[in-house]
Every structure is written in structure tokens, then in C-alpha cells.
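User: Hello, can you help with two protein structures?

Assistant: Certainly.
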Amino acid sequence: MKPKHLVTLQDLDRGAILQLFRTTAELKQQRKAPSKPLAGKTLGLLFQKPSVRTRVSFEVGMGQLGGTSLYIGPVELQEGKREAPKDMARVLSRYLDGIVARTFRHSEVEEMARFSDIPVINGLSDTSHPCQGLADLFTVQEKKGRLQGVKIAYIGDGNNVCHSLMEGCALLGVHLSVATPKGYLPDPVVARWALQQAKKSGARIEFTLDPARSVRGATVVYTDVWTSMGQEQEKLRRQKAFKGFRVDSAMMKAAGREALFMHCLPAHRGEEVTDEVMDSKQSIVYDQAENRLHVQKAILLSLLKK
């Protein structure tokens, strides 16, 4: 199945993801492709939220594939207040070859995809972060040599990153244990979809309020910030709610010496994770961050190359 857009990982199936991973591995080995398969193509980066990794990885990736990028930031977009997403999608379809949309509201990415004649890639929304989820699972496969038999323990907020991990694990047959405080569970709609897919793939998706239970026997321990961009007013309440969910050396010890640590970055050191864990030999956060570049190049080739 070759999708037209990548709004969530629900747009893909197992075969499409594994093909992306094969392409990713080839692109990573080549580093800079000798050919320029996207020469003459222009990618628009529509960012309501500022970003370092997402912007740089897409711009560099597009350049390495022979194309160019155009950045349209928060000042120009004004958080979607200047123009309806469907109008912007219709106009930009006549200028560009693809769009990466980084928005506060997931509905805006969906609307752009619905009215766009060119591929729309979700660079992050409040509901989903599909590029991150693909990079995460590719990294696990790269480090462990497999996805079958892997257990990922996700500790923290049931947010967009958690949603994409759930979708990816459900499609690929990976065991995922999600530990969140009460009141911070993943979206039940996404959870139901993941549980339904898990029955088909053999994945196990479970939810708990106990991080110690989640990390027991984990191949990977994964966390994200407790307070995301746009939630700053909730910071004190969240810090109180997430007490006991910090990934520290004791939690990693409970997972086991072979367990790896992952974080999608940026990290709030001392909050959701300690320096000791972030800087340990078990940490693969920088390899994980690098793989965003390679996975996104594979996505761009899949959607933009004709």
C-alpha cells in the first residue's frame, strides 16, 4: 500500500513500514545518495511550532535527495489564524511538491491532507508524531536486529509520541507497555485502534499506572517530556502528577543491564530523566535522533518520487 499522505501511522500497513525501513537502511549506508532522485522538487515546511530537529532533518534530507525546501514559520502562519488550512493547501498545491505540517491541532493537518493535491506529512500535531514513531522503531530494529520479541516500556505522558508508538507497535507486532499517571492515559480512540490491530499482528499493547511493572523485562525504556510545548501553564500540576515516573538508574536497573534508553528529545534533564541515564552507555537517544533524518528521507522518496 502506497499512501498519498502521512498524517498518522494508521495511513500505513506492516508491509509499507518494513519497505520504508529497508529504504532507510540503504539511504543511511549511502549517507548522500549519488543520484538526486528529488531534483527539481520543492518541499514546504509549514511550522506553527518552532523546531530544531524536525526542521533541520527535513531540510538536510531534502537537500541530500536533490530537492529544495521552503520554511514558513509561526510568524507567517500565526497559528493558523490568517488562513483556513484548506485554502492554504489548495494554493500551496500549485506551488510545491510536498508539505510538512507542524501544527498545534491535529485537525489542521487532516484538513490540509483532505484538500491538498500534493503529499502532506505530519511533522507533529497534538495527536500524532508519525515520523518520530517510525524513526523510533527503525532504531530499535537496528540496535537489536529484530522487532519480534521486543518489549518497549513507555513511561510518562500518553501524548502524540506515545500514540505513534502504539500505532507502530500494533502494526509490527511489538509488545508495548504504557505507564502513565491517572488522568494522562493515551487517547481512547487511538488505543482502541491499536488494540484491534494488535490482535491481527500478535502485538501486546498494555496500559498501567505502575512504571515499575511496565519496565520489568523491557528491551527498551522510553520517555518524553512531561510538559509539551503549549502546555506550559500546566507545568506545576504535571510535575506533581508525574512524581515517580522519572527514568533513573534504579528504573533502568529494574529493566535489566541489556535494556536501552530512548527519548525523542528535547529532554528536560532532571525532570523526566536523570543525567546519569541520558549520558549512560544504555542511552541511544542520539542515534535515535540521527535516524529521523534517514527515515524522513525514505518517507520523502516514497511520497514525492514519481
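That covers the first. Now for the second protein you mentioned:
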Amino acid sequence: MQLLYEEELVEGAVFLCANGRRSCIPPLQASRFSRSRERLYDIPDPDARNNAFFALHLKWFREWGLADLLAGVIREYPILDGALKTLSFRRAKARNEEGAELFVHPEEGRNGVVALRIERFERDADLLPFLLHELMHLSDMTDPAFGYSRDVPVRNPSQQQLVLGRYRLLWDITIDARLSSRTPKPTEPASRASSELKNRYETEFNRAYCFWDEARRREVFEALWNDAAPRHERLMSLAVDPRGAAAMNRPEPGGLCPLCGFSTFDWADGAAICSETAEAIRRQFPSWAVTQGACNRCVEVYEASQLEQPATLFL
């Protein structure tokens, strides 16, 4: 696996160090860097000057141990070395841009990208937990045992957002639980921090699954927190169908419509669904059966689609 560093990330991290925002950088070294950089402005050719700037920034990125710091975290996940062709680090402009992504190309293989804000290089206490968390996302995505898939078994776009939000929460719970259990004998501050993290996640989980009773919420949350080997399929099933509506043999009030994916109390009368409408539904949902039901809104849409079919001409 090849490690790549975006030029903007390297430059920003080195400037942060040179400006004294990372406490472990000796002032004399920062002065040496500044003098070396000033001399590069004398290079007349713009392309040669830009290349020289990047080479200088990369040299000090390594000199000040930032490259070794990232490499040390990567070694915590040996599966990545054989699973990825490249792992790139790029600069994120805002907090909502941060995170790890996996890109799969049929010819170029799998490549990972981690986006992070420059400010994280100020303190290892901000940088290391973030990297450990995001690289575990990549580790899970490349681990056959986890069984990751990008497919979301919901067609409705707004319902997809709800499902992905739940899934991300469940996945994050299992990741930080595994990270917090890595220290065999945690110190008192570390143990307290882990307890606070668990309480915060439990509050978020209770909010996301408020339709469950307290006993079920506690049971499922504890199972997630103590799961040393979570699986994508299990997390996705909890995210897609938390009420277990798919396992019901008949439509229930508040259950999910198998066509649009929304909760409904307005189920269509199965006996009133004509064969033409049922056939139109099955063209888009081949495994659907009338006994599964459908909300009245969906049935009306498919009934209307039959009326819009061109008339047959008899000559």
C-alpha cells in the first residue's frame, strides 16, 4: 500500500508547526524552515518553484514526525496494507468534510482517502482518536468478515437518508466500543472518558430508537457495545427495519410499506387490488406479493399508471 499526502495538507500542517501551534516543535527548527522557504522565492520558473516548495514542506512534514505519526496509526490496522492500493490523506476545509472514504475501481483496485482538518495537528489528543476511528471504518469496509456493502435496501430517497443516519450511528457505536476496549488496564481518566463516551452514545441511540421500550433499547445497545466482531448485515437490518415489520405476515398499523418504505396506517385493501395493478407493482418489485400489502398512496400511483397506458387499436 502506498501512502500519499495532498500538497495542501502537507503545507498547512507544516505552517501550523512553524507558527508554534504544535508545542513539540523547537523554535530554532521553525526558524530554519522559514529561512529555507524564503530562499525558494528566488527560483524564477513558477513550476520549478512550486515543486521546490512542496519538496521542502514534505521534508519538514517528515522531519517533525507527522508522517511517522500517521504511519503509526495505520499500523494498528494491518488489513489495510493488503487491501488497499493507496491510502491518501487530504485537507478538509470544514468538520462536515472530514472522514474516510473507500473508492473501488475495476482496474485500479481499492483506494482509501482520509480527509482531516489542519487544526487536528495541534494536539495528538485531537488527531489520534479521529484517525483511529476513521481508519477502523476503512478496516471494516475492507474486511470480508464484516461484509460491507454500499447497497441500501430502500428505494425512497428520504427514507434512505433516515436509514443511513441510523446505520452510521450503529456503526460508530461498535467502532468506539472496540477502540475503548483495547487498553487492558485503562487509567482512571481513560476509564472515565470511556464511560462518558458510552453514555453519550446511549443517549443518541435512545433518541434514534425512541419507539422501542426501555428494556429493548438497553438490551440492543449493550449487545452493540460489547460486540467484538460486528457485521454489516446485522447493523443494516437494525437501521432499515427496526420495528421488524418485514417479518410480519400481514400489514400492521404503523408498519413499513414494502413499496415506498414509509410507515403507514393507511393500508390498501388487498382484495381490492386488481390483477393489472398487482402486475404493474411486480414489474418494479418482482418479489412483492399481495399478502405483504401496500399503502393506499402507492396503490393509487400504480392504478394511475395503468390508466396512462396507450390504448390498443383494433383494425
